[in-house]
Amino acid sequence: MEQTTLPTTDNQLVFSPLLRKIALVISYITHPLFIPIIITVLVVRALPEYFISFAHESIRFKYDLLYFRVLSISVFFPALVLLLGLTLKFVDSVHMRSQRDRIIPYVASTIFYFWGYYAFKRQGVTPPFFNAFFLGIFIAVVMAMVANTYVKISMHTTGWGGVIGFLLMLMIGMQMNVSFPLIITFFVAGIIATARLILSAHTPAEIYTGFIIGILAQWIAYAIVG
């Protein structure tokens, strides 16, 4: 019986253009820049009692100032730095395919996320687990930036590994029942990892290392913030 095999190039699987386009769309939708605002919206909706002060300070709609702050820290400023890097030729591609392309975005992100963590902690109205989440992002970016000297770690799996670590922190550290969100996150993380492999953006080792860094960083942050 004749076997059907996928074509290969240099021992790598070659996927169809349609599958690669789907993987690219998934990579855009689940970009790590969007993770902080996604988590913020979900946490605020699930645990509004921890964010009462932001509800009272709202201007246009409930929690709008909180959402704006998170969007500024995690999306607007990092995207602005990336655009400036592209304009000044410090970054070759928006996809940041090389380790060199990632240096400036990494450095800028460490500043923005530490600023976010420090501002929330200094204000004193956000719960410790929320502060720990932003500190965990900062630690993950620092770890990835150091590792970037040797290997191009997946920022996608680092980010979603951070989400897994955050949920595990809530489940084990705070005894919250987040089993269903955790299962969904594992499923989404698997899809994202597969998409990055289909695009040949990373090796399996770079994918797994990203997950490990993301999870570990959140647990280090939880140990610090408590």
What is this structure's SSE topology?
Elements: E1 8-9, E2 12-13, H1 17-29, H2 35-46, H3 52-56, H4 64-87, H5 99-123, H6 128-147, H7 155-173, H8 179-198, H9 204-225
Antiparallel strand pairs: 1-2
Helix pairs in contact: 1-8, 2-4, 4-5, 5-6, 6-7, 6-9, 7-8, 7-9
**Mean pLDDT, all residues:** 89
| Number of discrete helical segments | 9
Strand content: under 5%
Annotation, overall tally of beta strands: 2
Helix share, percent: over 70%
Radius of gyration: 19 Å
How would you characterize this protein structure?
With 226 residues, this protein is an all-alpha fold. It has one domain. It is built from 9 helices and 2 strands, in the order ββααααααααα. The chain has a two-stranded antiparallel sheet with strand order 1-2. A hairpin with a 2-residue loop joins strand 1 and strand 2. Helix 1 packs across helix 8, helix 2 packs antiparallel against helix 4 and helix 7 packs antiparallel against helix 8. The radius of gyration is 19 Å and the shape is globular. The N terminus is likely disordered.
Summary of the model, kept short:
It contains 9 helices and 2 strands; from the N terminus they run ββααααααααα. The chain has helices at 17-29, 35-46, 52-56, 64-87, 99-123, 128-147, 155-173, 179-198, 204-225, and strands spanning 8-9, 12-13. The termini are far apart.
